[in-house]
Amino acid sequence: MTKNVMRLYLINPNNPLVNLANVRDSRWNRYRVWKPLGLLVLAGMTPRQWEITVIDENLHTPDYSTMPRPDLVGITAFTSQASRAYDLAGEFRSRGVSVVMGGIHATMCSEEALRHVDSVVTGEAESIWPDVLDDARKGRLKRTYSGEHIDLARVPPARHDLLAEGYAFGSVQTTRGCPLNCSFCSVSAFNGTRYRHRPIANVIEEFRSIREKWVLVVDDNLIGTNASHIARAKELFRAMIAADLGKSWIGQVTINMADDEELLDLAVRAGCRGVFIGFESPSDEGLAEVGKKFNLLKGRNFRSSVRQIQRHNILVVGSFIMGLDADEPGIGRRIAEAADNYGVDIMNTLFLTPLPGTRLWDQMKSQGRIAADKFPDDWRYYTLGFPTAHYKNFSWSDLVEEMKCCDRIFYSLWGILRRVAGSFLRKRRPVLSLVGNLSYRKNAQLAERSYAELDMRRGKLWRDESSAGTPPREASESKPPVGVVLTMSTKTDPV
User: Fold this and answer.
1) Domains of the chain with bracketed CATH
2) How far apart are CA 69 and CA 75, in angstroms?
3) Residue pLDDT, tens place only, 192-243
């Protein structure tokens, strides 16, 4: 390394509670992790004077003490990664290395983050990253940097070459922002409600640089919600078809994808093999509670819409949330039956989780219903895979039993066989359906083990068995975290 070159580590922390670390330990883990795309984007706009190492602890957690000492460490984190991020920061700072932290959690809980790192980048880091690096070179890092919503034409291709192996899926982003503004999600708080898109030529260029044949399009809503959004999606798909990329991809969309035959035809010709759709709740009351007005449109037949998408040889993953105030005992079975009735190929059910930065957080905090509140340690439970609140109609253990019931019904061996056989008979991605179902079944089994371990460790700290939904005295008197805002979104967190 020459005298003027500085060493930069960009780190995506793990969370051991979600059983994803060290994908080499399980072949299934490769299908449940995605690249830390935000770090790869920042690497793409980092000057040559920096030697860059990107570390994803979901692949492997190295022994940092044996690695060359960096000049600067950048860490990104979802809320569920925050406690690990702070541990990492402490480790490097003890060696005299400056640490800058960004991403969704640092943005929304910046005062908390500043107690553990040297500098915090809030918002979209691409708009401010060159200044951060210049200040670091000159030894004058500021405590905070405020990123702005950037023109996506200025976002360079991600450095996919820096994490070239270990993933089943590559990753790419084509849009940012979401106009839906659901109560449980803070995408709009971080990326805004305006639907922004990258130039299509830039997207095609980046697709070509991805070595994996399968790609996850990480946009929160790839097709958007109105006519102009959908017209742009069609233009993108036409360009992908013309480029003959040879990629198969999966993206997140809303149910309105089923309403446009041309859109579906273009998507599948462009390589679409599966879509992730948030159904959220099997009841109108639940949809109204989370603010998913888009799914409340009159006359919408979910089964018919799912079938329409599947007729184009596209698999449908349906996502649901459990623990809403509108939910009552038996919700686990009801969700499983709704998913089966809609005909989705794969079901993904999550616990209602009050993430900072959401209306849900504000509501539950004001009501004293944040149960896992020993921060920063308890952030590790905010994976959406653990109950973290006091729920209106369920105790902690009751809701866990509902989740177990839901997964056992939908992911029974008979249920998997029936869905995969249906995919085979209709020539609709039977191998992908089998891999997805078995992966989710395995994940549900690992989750049950985690519930048991957590129950033994924490006892009744998060629960009030005698009165479901009523917060215990300790919870209602505990202090809220400093900086009360965050999101579950963005898989593209910049540092």
Assistant:
1) 6-146 (3.40.50.280), 154-447 (3.80.30.20)
2) 16
3) 778 899 999 999 999 999 999 999 999 989 998 889 999 999 999 999 999 9
